[in-house]
């Protein structure tokens, strides 16, 4: 029996030593991003006996359990690539960016302190590379989210610049109603050719698909009461190919106004011959195809003149003809200046020309039992029999949480609780040493007998 008591005391020393090690690991990781506290629990060791009148001591065993499913406090940061998770789920990461690397193993983590390395790959402080689905030009991602071969390491420096061709031109302008009408007929192209002097001219800039800019002239002349000839043409007739006479003519027609100064209709005679939206409350928006001579292709541009019967676009009042405002979309070529991540996990590239483009979609990995995951180096986790197989879902779907950009998840360690457990475990260790001392005294007395 003395030997059994000695063995029981030794098991206590071993168990409480492991407990102190677990507590010390928690304390040292109190400031580790995304760290999940490990709890030490003890289990009895029972020695089987055939007698009900005798007791055979067994001892105690230590069982460690990491509370992976516990949510840590989300704290704000100044970096756009610091990512937290609000809810369940894990970032999908890899220990090497290349699929051919022997260390390129898929892992899972909540440590979202990602930053670009020298090659532009986003990786956290443990050196794990963030993985995502590439988004194509149409904004689509792979349909089979479970195919891990479609995941790629996110690289922000490999993104090229981009430009955008103009497709919409909005005009707010006034044409003076008290102007004297031009003598004689004014035909299509007379303003572009200079045959008839205009009452009003204004320059606007449009962009082609290669980021080049082209200057267009808006020109108008009064031809009758409540009627203006309106034309748009290229300042450089060789820059935009048209089938018009004179060269460079893009749009030509007659603007009709109501008696209250609101626009009524646009009787277009180039590039088509039609009356644009004669009904009140309908948009007046003729479209012209701009074929750029520099090889940038053809852009269909919609010119928004306003709403028929309203004063939200081109108007006719007795004040000086002026362009109040214009809105032109499109942009010149721009380079990448940064990235932004949304709550839904969409990584957007930001360009210095004001454009943005969605380039990656971050996935989330969920598990039936996240507390059963295997702990790996670098505050990451791997599959185990207890965790179950993972599911790849998009943030905010399938039980997964959302991405919290410019945020980091703090450690779940409660420092006060850890110090309290440390004192209790230390005292239990000391008590186990007394058990061994007492058992040793008993054995010594037996030897003396």
Description:
With 449 residues, the chain is mostly beta strands. It folds into 3 domains: 2-67 and 413-448, no CATH class; 74-157 and 337-409, no CATH class; 163-333, Tick-borne Encephalitis virus Glycoprotein, domain 1 (Sandwich). Helices cover 14% and strands 38% of the residues. It has helices spanning 2-28, 190-193, 415-448; strands at 38-45, 59-66, 74-76, 83-86, 91-94, 106-109, 115-116, 122-123, 129-134, 152-153, 162-164, 168-174, 200-207, 213-224, 227-234, 240-241, 249-257, 263-270, 274-276, 283-284, 287-292, 297-304, 306-307, 314-315, 322-328, 331-334, 336-341, 346-351, 356-361, 364-366, 374-376, 380-382, 391-393, 402-405, 407-409. The strands form 10 sheets. Strands 5, 6, 9, 10, 27, 28, 29, 31 and 32 form a 9-stranded antiparallel beta sheet that branches. Strands 12, 16, 21, 22, 24 and 25 form a 6-stranded mixed beta sheet that branches. Strands 13-14-15-17-18-19 form a 6-stranded antiparallel beta sheet, with no helix packed on it. A hairpin with a 4-residue loop joins strand 28 and strand 29 (356-361). Helix 1 (2-28) packs antiparallel against helix 3 (415-448). The longest helix is centred in the C-terminal third of the chain and has 34 residues, at 415-448.
